[in-house]
Amino acid sequence: xxxxxxxxxxxxxxxxxxxxxxxxxxxxxxxxxxxxxRQTPGKDRDFVSYIGPSGVTYYTESVKxxxxxxxxxxxxxxxxxxxxxxxxxxxxxxxxxxxRNSVFSSDWDYWGQGTQVTVSS
Length: 121
Hints:
Layout: E1 2-6, E2 10-13, E3 18-26, E4 33-39, E5 46-51, E6 57-59, E7 67-72, E8 77-82, E9 91-98, E10 110-111, E11 115-120
Parallel strand pairs: 2-11
Antiparallel strand pairs: 1-3, 3-8, 4-5, 4-9, 5-6, 7-8, 9-10, 9-11
């Protein structure tokens, strides 16, 4: 089992920045692939980014150049640095852990509780 706890999100103006973190406990964090997804009311949970154990990353097109995913294995922590935020980035953000890289939420095994990010335009 892996427990994931996201940091508090927040309200930020368009063009601003925000960093999310996700602390993992339980099984060896360094062995897991980690990801961020986001969800808005009435919609599916959408892929944002993932990072493999060795640091290989992948992003959905809409956040490329604006978001950066990273991990600190010594601290069992996953990060998402978000810059140049837009109103359409408003969502509940979830971190996830799993054993395979995937853009599909059903392929991830463990989830955090989610944290709200609101971008005002």
